[in-house]
Design a protein that fits this description.
Structural class: alpha+beta
Largest sheet: 4 strands, mixed
Strand order of the largest sheet: 3-1-2-4
Distance between the termini: 64 Å
Length: 197
Amino acid sequence: MRADIMWNAVVACRAEYDGVFYYGVRTTCIFCRPSCRSKTPKRENVDFFASAREAMERGYRPCKRCRPDLLEAVYDPNGKWIREVQELLEREYRDPWTLDRLARRVGVSAFHLQRMFKKYTGASPKQFLNRVRVEEAKRLLADSDKKITAICYDVGFTGLTPFCTAFRRLTGMSPRAYRNLRLRERPDENRNRQLQE
């Protein structure tokens, strides 16, 4: 966006540009929304930013009147490391994760990890990991001839009981029933496939 358009929006306090850009005043090191009703600064003292995060990274503080920091998720350190934990579990789902081991890996307390992970994802780390493992198990059950026991260990479960319990909770059926259902859906491809486990 052109600087003259942004400047005119600041002078006119045009709310429709809120979230489109932000402006900062060099003399005060404060940044605002275009609609802010604070005193109009001199043009030569104004910097424009595409995001509130960019303004903060350049050393500007959010205005206490218009609160540009509330317009978007500016700084969310918990969200960032929660996403990293999700990616870690998706990538290393075969590993024998415990809450304590996971907490040490990401550098937070087990209590904080459990609480924040559930707040952001709606599930505990264990529930999330089980979902990842069950999704991979579903793929293997449908696309391979591996025995159910082998699949259970391949996806990271420590035994058939926790595997079958998690699988049934997330799919509404046992691993064997899921495999049989998938085989019936593709009879031509699987006519000669043995269902013996």
